[in-house]
Amino acid sequence: MSQSNNKLTTSWGAPVGDNQNSMTAGSRGPTLLQDVHLLEKLAHFNRERVPERVVHAKGAGAHGYFEVTQDLSQYTKAAFLSEVGKRTPMFIRFSTVAGELGSADTVRDPRGFAVKFYTEEGNYDLVGNNTPVFFIRDAIKFPDFIHTQKRHPQTHLKNPNAVWDFWSLSPESLHQVTILMSDRGIPATLRHMHGFGSHTFKWVNAEGKAVWVKYHFKTEQGVRNLDVNLAAQLAGENPDYHTEDLFNAIDKGDFPAWKLCVQIMPEEDADTYRFDPFDVTKVWSQKDYPLIEVGRMVLDRNPENYFAEVEQATFSPGSFVPGIEASPDKMLQGRLFAYADAHRYRVGANHNQLPINRPVAEVNNNQRDGAMNSTSNGGGSVYYEPNSFGGATESPQHKPAPFKVSGQADSVAYDHNDHYTQAGDLYRLLSEEERARLVQNIVGAMTPVEYDEIKIRQIGHFYKADPEFGQRVAAGLGLPVPAAE
Known about the structure:
Layout: E1 23-25, H1 36-46, E2 59-68, E3 87-96, E4 111-119, E5 122-129, H2 142-149, H3 160-169, H4 174-181, E6 195-196, E7 201-204, E8 210-219, H5 228-237, H6 241-251, E9 257-266, E10 292-301, H7 306-311, E11 324-326, H8 330-346, E12 409-411, H9 421-429, H10 432-446, H11 452-465, H12 467-477
Helix pairs in contact: 1-8, 2-3, 3-11, 4-9, 10-12, 11-12
């Protein structure tokens, strides 16, 4: 393997100075719109497939409701969380990440867990996964990461060389890789897995006081996973196994449910916590920030038409309601743009007019025209603001809570680079049987990699997380543990 002397450039030929870190105001950001390389990467990436989703193409969905079970109005002014017993209609889409629309359900892959709450203040989308962390922590790396999960441009085959090369060169992925290769990498059904918002978000109460929050959906069905051999058999015999199971369960009245809990961190703790609380490759210890119950989500109605509802459903982590805001999480900051932009391309600029996406709240804006506009297009009403003719106006009381930023505008990495402690802690929490299966899964996934250099580099990451972890993977691959750096 030789290093290339070719310079990475933008589409207009300018050399790229930093392809690992997006440009932010200080180490925590927020991300700057002037980072045109980041915007180009994300915008181009959203337009690489026509017309299915670039990621999360294969999915299943259902309607249901969310019911508040505990009053947390001291932390957030979000109206749909305002009183115990309040119910809000919602729609959820589960999905695999890497496969195409016709791919098998029972592959080893994270599962998307995207929830749309139809609140009286507008739609709130919580777009997460069935894992509490992710592979990368800066959106500028997302197109590159997903490319490794897709097919080789020449052979059109999955490419384990690319997968493990990227992971081995991106040590921040280790925590998620460990989860993915564990038993949790193949859920038994979509009903038998937890869901997570993954990112850190901000809650703001009626007095303007803010806290940081993480979301946890705990399945009431219990967590169950599939044996790898059974999963492979089902992939061949019934590639739509998870989709079928969810539909049939709801159809016969066995309504799946999840308890929603949150972790709440005081705003000031972000500066002193031992891990960066905005780094999506890390978790917050539940000993430090215990789970607090919020409510219960129940799925009780199947879609009437798959395309109209599941396929045309659009979710964006930027669809907030008053009382819920973004954090400086760099991966989240990129998703705030990329998801909505993907929907504008894939479904159209007026995707929120479709019945599955349409808010129950009244919509008043000055957006007009565009393909497939299914409304009166504003009629003859005022189409700009400010105006003197009674058109819709801003409401200052709904401005996001202010927050301080500081630092020199630059492409900078996170300050904290301990990618091994949490992955090692996870390994040590597993039983011996679970560790054996984890190592076996990793060895099986890495064996097709053609370059020992890549394998040894990745073994080094496992070893840093836990020496036994690295030694067992190395033994399984018949390779040495690399010398300590």
